[in-house]
Amino acid sequence: xxxxxxxxxRSGITIAGLVKLYGSLKVLNGxxxxxxxxxxxxxxxxxxxxxxxxxxxxxxxxxxxxGTIDIGDRRVVDADxxxxxxxxxxxxxxxxxxxxxxxxxxxxxxxxxxxxxxGFPRAxxxxxxxxxxxxxxxxxxxxxxxxxxxxxxxxxxxxxxALVSEPKVLLLDEPLSNxxxxxxxxxxxxxxxxxxxxxxxxxxxxxxxxxxxxxADTIVVIESGSIVQVGPPGDILDRPANRFxxxxxxxxxxxxxxxxxxxxxxxxxxxxxxxxxxxRNRGSGLKAGQPAxxxxxxxxxxxxxxxxxxxxxxxxxPARVAGVQGLGRWRETYVDYAGTKLSARDLADAPPQxxxxxxxxxxxxxxxxxxxx
Amino acid sequence: xxxxxxxxRPWTGRFGRVAFRIFLAALxxxxxxxxxxxxxxxxxxxxxxxxxxxxxxxxxxxxxxxxQLLSNIWATILLxxxxxxxxxxxxxxxxxxxxxxxxxxxxxxxxxxxxxAATPGLFYAISWAMLANPSAGVVSKLLAAIGIGGLGQWFNxxxxxxxxITGSLKVSGFxxxxxxxxxxxxxxxxxxxxxxxxxxxxxxxxxxTLPSLAPAYFAIGMxxxxxxxxxxxxxxxxxxxxxxxxxxxxxxxxxxxYATPNWQAANAVAVLTMVFVASIVAVQIWLLxxxxxxxxxxKSPPVTPLASKGxxxxxxxxxxxxxxxALVAPVAQFVIGSFQPFFGLYGRWTLDNYIWILNDxxxxxxxxxxxxxxxxxxxxxxxxxxxxxxxxxRAPASFLGVLSRIGSWIPATAPGxxxxxxxLFTYIKTPLIRDxxxxxxxxxxxxMVGAIPIAVRAAEGMIAQIxxxxxxxxxxxxxxxIPTVVGIVARLCAPSLVGAWLLISxxxxxxxxxxxxxxxxxxxxVATYAFSLVSQGEYSIAAAMLVxxxxxxxxxxxxxxxxxxIARRLFDRPRTAASTKSSLARENMHGN
Lengths: 373, 592
Known about the structure:
The structure holds two protein chains of two kinds.
Chain A: E1 4-5, E2 10-11, E3 13-22, E4 25-35, E5 40-44, H1 51-59, E6 66-71, E7 74-78, E8 83-84, E9 92-95, H2 107-117, H3 122-136, H4 151-163, E10 169-173, H5 181-198, E11 201-206, H6 209-215, E12 218-223, E13 226-231, H7 233-238, H8 243-248, E14 253-263, E15 266-271, E16 276-279, E17 291-296, E18 302-304, E19 314-327, E20 330-337, E21 340-347, E22 359-365, E23 370-372
Parallel strand pairs in A: 5-11, 5-12, 9-10, 10-11
Antiparallel strand pairs in A: 1-2, 3-4, 3-6, 6-7, 7-8, 12-13, 14-15, 14-17, 15-16, 17-23, 18-22, 19-20, 19-22, 20-21
Chain B: H1 14-45, H2 58-65, H3 68-100, E1 101-102, H4 109-118, H5 121-131, H6 138-145, H7 160-185, H8 188-196, H9 201-212, H10 214-230, H11 233-238, H12 247-256, H13 263-288, E2 306-307, H14 312-338, H15 352-359, H16 361-394, H17 399-413, H18 416-428, H19 440-465, H20 468-476, H21 481-510, H22 513-516, H23 526-535, H24 539-571, H25 577-589
Parallel strand pairs in B: 1-2
Helix pairs in contact in B: 1-13, 1-17, 1-18, 2-13, 3-7, 3-10, 4-7, 4-14, 5-14, 5-24, 7-10, 8-9, 10-13, 12-13, 13-18, 14-24, 15-24, 16-17, 16-19, 16-21, 16-24, 17-19, 19-21, 20-21, 23-24
């Protein structure tokens, strides 16, 4: 069961065997997850993978078909026993994708709403509102209406409203997706700093791998209602557990092969073209004689006209240039290695890496991830 | 600091919620669905007052064997199709002017059409019966004054053409309000493509834009035809005196046109009319089912109105002419008529009609009852309609959602007189409610049932635009469902709910057919009493009655609005004046 810390102000979340059915469609497929008190967790996945449903189930805005959820030491969902604590009794803060500010209330009244509804003494209201407004950086606009605010200001008001009642858990449902790139970047930093200061357990839903990596301590990757990988951002980005995660976090070249030999963190793989390469970043579960896949980002893949002596930092494969395409500032060179198409990306104004039909050598970083296919 | 626990709300427990939902469902079934069952039962049993029940098909046999039935059906179809075509032409003309032409009086069109639509049909019919009367009407008097009195006989509202033209003028208001949205939102890109290909803008509008709106026209046309079949007041005042009887009038005829009411026959006609209307609605649903009616792409640039060159004055003249014919003339006739000693005698101004009403117990009672109905009945209807619309919008597949949707359509498909019969049967068979016979409360219930579709449709559109996240944010903040729905959703819908309230109170005051069978000699509404006055030829008193009511309603609404404004200032002030000032001062200092 999830534990509480800091006098009950921060709560962990424990989810066990959570299933959500819409008719015969399984939206959540037996999710189990432990979130430590004070952690910042990102639920990452493509549209329709179930990440928002999982967040809404934690919030109490959606019910579960099976499974349990504990927030702190309180069981808020036990679907099989019919236990369902409604959202208004869960003591959470939440920032919605479109902010959900009430247009008929001033900023002050929007922020005050949770204090009123949760029975905070009236004498404390003003001080709490001012304190949270200072925290999120909007003390001067309290008497404006939400329609008079910019997107960034609205986002801050939504955050202030979510934080004002000192919730045990803060839920963020793609809170930055409606902002322009600069503001998004700025608010990411601010949200992370706020978490570091206040330490509220935070769950962020996002489909943006950079956002997840920049803000969260732990990333939970979800695919088709199931968790496919949990780990710190470095693990997810550098050691994806399978082809789905690799593809989602930006790997766009995949080479299939068979594991020849394992030695510590090194793995020797015989590729489909017959070449044998040794890589140093193997995933778990690899066994000799089994199929495996190497993943490489196109910007990490380089081409050379001539072969070099074996190096520690990369491995080399012979290939033929199949085409070149300009992409604005970038250029992509497509090569063919034993029937597998690979792409290498470099700057458009750099010297060309090869002409169509020419023979080249593809250099793959030796720390490229390898996983079970 | 932090409160130890949230307040306990036992009524939000599972049992409380289920019990509350069952109660609401039972209320919807009793008020909106059960009357139709009772209507069918009545067509097979006869008088609701009979102590014993005999099942018989004699009502249907009588009606189907009645040689007049066919002429009733033809009259109904002719009237509804005639009015629909006329009003669609008028509505289209003004919708095109309002959306595509830059003329001086363009901004007058929408307010003018709202007023035309909001004027109750009964007032309109009485006014036109006075205005275009071949012997005593203003039109014939004016023609006589300029020496062409012989033409006066052609201006007779109490005739087939009179009824269709008057009906078309009135319904043009609705047709315009339905059409202006689709016409202004029609994908401009298609029209632009035709212009680029060489068509003139006007030609492109008629050959490209209008045909692309065919589904909208079809849906609106069907709606107006159904409304035409249901109409009672227009044919009762402008058709009945010359023997024109629509199906609605036939139902009424069976009940009041003979020495004893023929309940079986009246109910049989009512059931047949319902089947007729339901089959039209079914055809409409079948034809429109599964088709893409998107005429709004959401990508079109805003329409730039065409500047009308040399002939702009002609367009302005047509707007002024319509305003005069559809609005100014009927209202002026009404007001002037109410100050004349007798209808048709012009020249002497008198307050006699108003004095007569103030001394008439039934007249004063009708004014009081109608005011109560307009305020209490319309307010409760708007609230009930809001909650039904909420269930339809937020939980469309739930039991309450489905029930609300069905319930909100049934009164709209039943002609008012049919609803009146159905409700009479229901109320008479219900203990306690039965005791309310002869009071205005029962008429109020009936009018509330009739107005539910208007209230639900008005709230539905608004609720659909309110993001669900706004409610969810309140739940997360600790708010419970009913305070959230009232404090967030209803509060945000308030402007359109007030609009719906005004429309419904006018509708309740002006509706004749629904309270017709539930009235008694002592308990009348303004509409039923005005109708009985008109039936006795007392047009001037009827006009004074309706003018008095409109003045009272306006006065009472202004007072309520004033009270509301004062209350809002008292209770809706910023939470702390001091902090407001200081934060504003800081804001100014920062120049933010």
